[in-house]
Amino acid sequence: MRTRPGCVSLLLLVLPLFLSSPAWAVPGKELFEKECAGCHTIGGGDSGGPDLKGITGKRPAAWLERIIVEPEKLTMEKDPVQLALVKRYGGEMPNLGISRADAKQIIAFLHDVSAAASSPGAGASAESAQKPVETVVTPELVAQGRALFAGGTPFANGGAPCSGCHGFANAGVPGGNLAVDLGRRVEAAGEQGFRGMLKSLNFPVMRTMYADKPLTDGEITALVAFAKDATARKAVPACTHYPVTGVVLFACLIGGMTLYKRRIR
């Protein structure tokens, strides 16, 4: 049986797709960048969530699949690793609706990237490429960020103000009760974590609200400056002053009574 030249040419074009491993890794990379990169880095340090470099060597594949697909169930089951992550980063990773098949591709990508980064010279270049940039806080940026958060200044692309769903107790800014107070979340996630969350807006409700209304880089920087300033200025709760005040008043009372007794003698 003779093979047609056209079939041979087609076979030569298709065969590399099956034999080349990087081609299979592309879907996992794309999924990671779309679903995970807003809160996670690979070798760039902790952000909104933990750095995932080498994670496939630290956690079983089945556990990684579950935390991607059903993180809330791990919390309900009081999984100790999950509870530690929730405590450290100020909240549970949201359920993004990722299928098990897609989760497996993400895990495969993380495994391949971690293996490549462990080769001599590769890790240093990967980490330097993801070196985070710290935001310089200025009064102007803080004021701009506060106005954006509270809705005094609208977002350029028409997104809803943060205070519609969130409060920011550290800064004394009230807000809605639909989502967590961002003061606590920013403290746990840090600057880069908060920046990643604002850049991706990859949470179930926010994904819909901001689907075609992303924040600009300038708006993100202003919100980060506002959050950093609020965290740095975090006030000591008023109730902590009461014991000190009580001691002072008690001492004054004793002193007053002592003087009074001396006078009437």
Write up what this structure looks like.
It is a single chain. The protein has 13 helices and no strands. With 265 residues, it is mainly α. The chain has 3 domains: 18-129, Cytochrome c-like domain (Cytochrome Bc1 Complex, Chain D, domain 2, Orthogonal Bundle), CATH 1.10.760; 139-232, Cytochrome Bc1 Complex, Chain D, domain 2, CATH 1.10.760.10; 240-265. α9 packs across α12 (217-232) and α10 packs antiparallel against α12. Mean pLDDT is 77; it is low at 14-25, 123-129 and 235-242.
CATH class descriptor of the largest domain:
Mainly Alpha
Main sheet, how many strands, which sense, barrel?
none
Overall morphology: globular
Work out the helicity level: 55-70%
Order of helices and strands: HHHHHHHHHHHHH
For this structure, the CATH topology of the largest domain is: Cytochrome Bc1 Complex, Chain D, domain 2
Instruction: Give the strand tally.
Output: 0
Q: Radius of gyration over alpha carbons? A: 27 Å
Gap between N and C termini: 130 Å
Q: How many alpha or pi helices?
A: 13
The CATH homologous superfamily of the largest domain? Cytochrome c-like domain
Number of self-contained structural domains: 3
Strand content: under 5%
Specify the CATH architecture of the largest domain: Orthogonal Bundle
Poorly predicted regions are 14-25, 123-129, 235-242
The pLDDT mean sits at 77
Structural class: mainly alpha
